[in-house]
Write a structure and sequence with these properties.
The chain is α/β, with parallel strands linked by helices. The chain has 9 helices and 9 strands.
Length: 289
């Protein structure tokens, strides 16, 4: 495990781009970083921008005073592009004037180091910024996954009426059964891992499944053989469920499938559904004794 960044392996070191027109400065910073990071180097602003586009570094150490395109201009360009706007940039400078630092902040710099660079200060700042960058990337990835789930639900909700409308009642029931079976297969592996944690509690198994699909359900045990499952967030999306109440049948089918996996003869009764205009979904699960 890397000493500098505890959450990446040696086989996948973060990439750091060092940009400086002084070879001695580059050699010094490379020496400080080479054990824990993969380093790239550039001697001018134009070369730095090309390397960023081609190699996607995780962090940039950027000299301010360079001939031609200076560090301010490089930073402004990179922070204005969607691909690199969240890449941390540490400006490295011999200047200590507050106006110069303000200019760097206005260009989008995330932090500053003063030449001569102190090893401990540099590695600490690099490690901290990389940790923030990783957390940001995780949030973006989860946001993208959520957006994809919402798109899938929207497509599902839009296509169901097209499939169901021309069918007979009997055929509609067959389609719903097939959809329920498909959902059950998708989550079967999850259930096999989770069931040991819910011995004898069919309600918890049901809400775990619905919450994995994107809902917000909880269970209330009424008696040893009776549970209420309440949902305040529909796994298919509230608007989609109201437009297509058939989705509520799919939810009931999933609960029935999960209940049938537990020992005993369980019966599922629909009391309320958001698809029918209620404020929440409510299902009664009881075991026939």
């Amino acid at each position: 495990m890397c000493k500098g960044v505890p959450f990446v392996s040696d086989d996948n070191k973060p990439k750091i781009l060092i940009v400086d027109d002084e070879p001695m400065n580059i050699e010094l910073m490379e020496e400080y970083l080479t054990d824990d990071y993969e380093t790239l180097t550039a001697s001018n602003g134009k070369e730095a921008i090309e390397l960023v586009q081609n190699h996607d570094p995780d962090l940039i150490l950027l000299d301010i005073m360079m001939p031609g395109m200076d560090g301010y201009e490089v930073c402004t360009i990179l922070k204005s592009q969607s691909k690199t706007q969240f890449t941390p940039i540490v400006m490295v400078t011999a200047l200590s004037d507050i106006k110069e630092r303000i200019k760097g902040i206005e260009a989008g710099a995330d932090d500053f180091l003063t030449i001569p660079v102190n090893r401990l200060e540099m590695t600490t700042r690099v490690r901290s910024l990389l940790r923030v960058k990783q957390l940001h990337d995780i949030v973006i990835e989860e946001k993208n996954q959520l957006e994809m789930q919402n798109r899938v639900r929207s497509v599902l909700a839009a296509i169901i009426p097209m499939i169901i409308q021309p069918l007979s009642v009997n055929d509609k029931n067959i389609v719903i059964q097939q959809m329920t079976n498909m959902v059950e297969k998708t989550i079967l592996a999850y259930l096999l891992d989770q069931e040991e944690g819910h011995p004898g509690c069919v309600g918890n198994v049901c809400i775990d499944v619905l919450n994995q699909l994107g809902g917000d359900f909880n269970v209330e045990q009424i008696t040893e053989y009776k549970f209420n499952v309440k949902g305040i967030k529909c796994p298919w999306g509230a608007k989609e469920a109201r437009r297509n109440p058939i989705l509520c049948n799919l939810t009931r089918g999933i609960i029935s499938k999960m209940a049938s996996r537990k020992e005993g003869n369980w019966n599922v009764k629909v009391l309320k559904t958001m698809g029918n205009g209620d404020e929440f979904c409510l299902f009664d699960i009881s075991q026939q004794t």
